[in-house]
Amino acid sequence: MVNGPALPKGVLSLHALPADHHEGPWDHIVTPPGLKERLLSQALLTLLHGRRLATLAGLPHGLIVLAGPPGTGKTTLARGLAQRAALAVAPEGATTYLEIDPHAFPSELLGESQRAITRLLRDTIPELAMRRPHTIVLIDEVESFAVARSAASMETNPVDVHRSTDAVLAGIDAIAAELPRVLFLTTTNFLTGVDEAFLSRADLVITFELPDTATIASIIRHSLVELAGLWPELAKLAADEELHARVAERCAGWDGRRVRKLVLAALAQRLDVAMDPGRLEADDLMAATGVPAGAA
Fold it and tell me: For the chain, how are helix, strand and coil distributed in percent, rounded to 5?
């Protein structure tokens, strides 16, 4: 793994996949049936057949957009997808994986953002893509990278915003044409903040919603199963589906991240449980929701 000063401007991390430290996230995120398979299929279509598909009139861009509220697991799922895709194509060679910091490019100097983005997409990524047969690029909070030009604030520099987004679009087009086995995974909390032309280039856009109570119950069960792996005496709580449903009702409207932290909060409800998590009880989970008994 490469990090620190050696990284090119705007690159947060750079390493090869598959990698042990990327294992886990894919299985931890609870999604609607079929969604993970759809994501993996789209990723493999680009990585395995991008070169052939690039000859079609409807040029694929190797671009996936995951949108939705914070805490719905978009970034974690994207990282897990990168690992799963890299495992699937491993017989053809390792995959170069890099994460981009979209906040590294805005500048008060007219034209500097455009130049920096152009260097990233026209020089840095192509150079890195030459190292291995496949390349996956993760851009979190892509609304800061491909800013919607129609909503550019007049309080900032709208000319520079337009030029920067133009540079993103031109760079994505160039990579799609010249390096069709590069896959872009992007996430956004604000789909309306992403430029319309960028979204039109996406091969797949998936919008995540806050989990319903059934999904929340599944997350609670999964978290308790993991905990029972550390403290086997909690196996009964992990198997109590009625309890999971009752707790889920109290967590309606929560995002997935907050639901997962519920179990940690439950462990801290009482000092004796904090000292020995195997003492966790159903009442601790209910209390951790912060909803008074009878209120939900």
Answer: 55, 15, 30
* pLDDT tens by residue, 265-281: 999 999 999 999 999 99
d(CA 157, CA 260): 40
Full DSSP string of 180-236: TTEEEEEEES-GGGB-HHHHHH-SEEEE-----HHHHHHHHHHHHHHHHHHSGGGHH
pLDDT at 291: 66
CA distance 142 to 218: 29
The pairing of strands 95-100 and 204-207 is unpaired
Using a 10 angstrom Cβ sphere, with 0-12 exposed, 13-18 middle and 19 or more buried, the burial of residue 232 is exposed
The number of CA neighbours under 13 Å toward the Cβ of 157 is: 15
CA-CA-CA-CA torsion for 114, 188, 129, 82, nearest 10 degrees? 170
- Could you give the CA distance from residue 98 to residue 128 in angstroms, rounded to a whole number? 9
Helices (H), 54-194: 74-89, 112-119, 125-129, 158-178
How confident is residue 5, by pLDDT bands cut at 50, 70 and 90?
low
* Domains of the chain listed by start with CATH number: 4-207 (3.40.50.300), 213-288 (no CATH)
What sign results for the dihedral spanned by CA atoms 8, 12, 17, 20? positive
Neighbours of 205 (CB within 10 A): 16
Q: Residue 102: is the preceding peptide bond cis (ω within 30°)?
A: no
pLDDT tens figures, 109-165? 456 788 889 999 999 999 999 999 999 999 999 998 898 887 765 455 566 778 889
87 residue type, one letter: L
In the structure, how many helices (H) and strands (E) does the chain have?
13, 6
The H or E element that residue 237 is part of is helix 235-239
